[in-house]
């Protein structure tokens, strides 16, 4: 069977995706699979690369070169249209993070061309990526989260004073202001007063017309990994130990001043609660395949669900695979499980659709 590995992408996490792809290529069971590389360049161009039948020796293989104007040369890939990836007897592994990768758009495209794929479906991806939708769903499920105020750009433009009053009536400074549909901490800022709140909103609206303002809290950050379709499994909790108060883009990807602690040093009840909330949130969001569920934990052991990432960082050293590894599922076996889950969901969906005809 062929795995079509889609990597790169147009989001801020382009480089993270390449690292994840290299890890996956090193762990796939080549006695069952061959891997078709398909790279999405930063400008959105899709590029078909080589088919691998064994582990690559170097990361260089992922950095494809191609021509879009028919020029001849020593290219390692060919510019293609997205629909050209369609093949029988293949499953797509969309190893893409952020907008246009993790937000349901790629997933919808893969449904449209009738291909099996790894990971969450359209609804879960779209809702998991959208911070306002996630909050509404968590609220409906009765899962604790920090207080928040959703604010559309138009509402802000029309009456900033009313928005200030609404925020200050509901929340205390510091507040966290976030574009609803981003990721990687892009466009997120912390506001200590009205002036900063104004700046933070202007910044958020550079990325989205919808923003959410949250109660800022001092908290540890703990995460639980989830795997499964109908049968949902969770891991022990892990902690992201920061030496910075705000886990922003630089600390996530550039400074690397983050340490993972697995298992998280938390009381058993906290861990069990985190697993229960993670599982319920996943089920409410219609999860399939995988997700990483992130929480805030205060020093009074209050737990607040922050978000579900439907395509979490997936290098061998990332939190999601590390949590499974500590739970007894090796990286290669984890990839195999994800492929089987993707195939099962595809079969099930195909049956639902044909039963209707
Ligand atoms: N309400 C909050 N209180 C305190 N810190 C927060 C809050 N919201 C976000 N943060 C900090 O900002 C980081 C990024 O926010 P998050 O909601 O996880 O966005 P992203 O989707 O970009 O990962 C978090 O990991 C945390 O360090
Ligand atoms: Mg986050």
Automatic annotation (TrEMBL):
<dbReference type="InterPro" id="IPR011095">
    <property type="entry name" value="Dala_Dala_lig_C"/>
</dbReference>
<dbReference type="InterPro" id="IPR016185">
    <property type="entry name" value="PreATP-grasp_dom_sf"/>
</dbReference>
<comment type="similarity">
    <text>Belongs to the D-alanine--D-alanine ligase family.</text>
</comment>
<protein>
    <recommendedName>
        <fullName>D-alanine--D-alanine ligase</fullName>
        <ecNumber>6.3.2.4</ecNumber>
    </recommendedName>
</protein>
<keyword id="KW-0479">Metal-binding</keyword>
<comment type="function">
    <text>Cell wall formation.</text>
</comment>
<dbReference type="InterPro" id="IPR011127">
    <property type="entry name" value="Dala_Dala_lig_N"/>
</dbReference>
<keyword id="KW-0133">Cell shape</keyword>
<dbReference type="GO" id="GO:0016874">
    <property type="term" value="F:ligase activity"/>
</dbReference>
<keyword id="KW-0067">ATP-binding</keyword>
<dbReference type="Pfam" id="PF01820">
    <property type="entry name" value="Dala_Dala_lig_N"/>
</dbReference>
<keyword id="KW-0961">Cell wall biogenesis/degradation</keyword>
<keyword id="KW-0436">Ligase</keyword>
<keyword id="KW-0547">Nucleotide-binding</keyword>
<dbReference type="InterPro" id="IPR005905">
    <property type="entry name" value="D_ala_D_ala"/>
</dbReference>
<keyword id="KW-0460">Magnesium</keyword>
<keyword id="KW-0464">Manganese</keyword>
<comment type="pathway">
    <text>Cell wall biogenesis; peptidoglycan biosynthesis.</text>
</comment>
<dbReference type="InterPro" id="IPR013815">
    <property type="entry name" value="ATP_grasp_subdomain_1"/>
</dbReference>
<keyword id="KW-0963">Cytoplasm</keyword>
<dbReference type="InterPro" id="IPR000291">
    <property type="entry name" value="D-Ala_lig_Van_CS"/>
</dbReference>
<feature type="domain" description="ATP-grasp">
    <location>
        <begin position="135"/>
        <end position="340"/>
    </location>
</feature>
<keyword id="KW-0573">Peptidoglycan synthesis</keyword>
<dbReference type="Pfam" id="PF07478">
    <property type="entry name" value="Dala_Dala_lig_C"/>
</dbReference>
<dbReference type="InterPro" id="IPR011761">
    <property type="entry name" value="ATP-grasp"/>
</dbReference>
